[in-house]
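Quick log. Single chain, no ligands specified.
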Amino acid sequence: PVFAGMNGSAIENFSCVIYNIFLMNCTWQAGRDAPADTQYFLYWQNSREDNQMECELYIKDENCRNMGCIFQNVSIGTEKAYFLVNGSSKESLIQFYDEYIDLYKIEKLMPPSNITVNCDEIKNDCIIQWQQPQISHSNKDMCFKYEINIKYK
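-> predicted structure:
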């Protein structure tokens, strides 16, 4: 059966974020009714054509239970990525958790770089310039809106 396993044993509060262009950090909490010996394993698939990959670098809690994962060299495609977290326990079957996520929606963008400010006191104006941060997905020029907050002394 699809939902085999003890109720409340699947992970909770699953979330992922992509930062520094190609690193992805995923975290979760153990199911509230999961046995103490439950160990979780995360798999993900970037697109239908890619192979499913297991986490290579787990984040462990104080009981050595896998509670997160760091992925390196992540590329953002146009399809939703598929995530699956299953678990194992000697006491009972553990329910799995799965979710499809648009990776571009979880990318944390870096701030602009090379910010310069040139002010002309005679004209009473300033020119502010910057470089947009690097991002890993395709709609590079359509994603950015900046707000400048100028405070006078």
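The mean pLDDT is 87.
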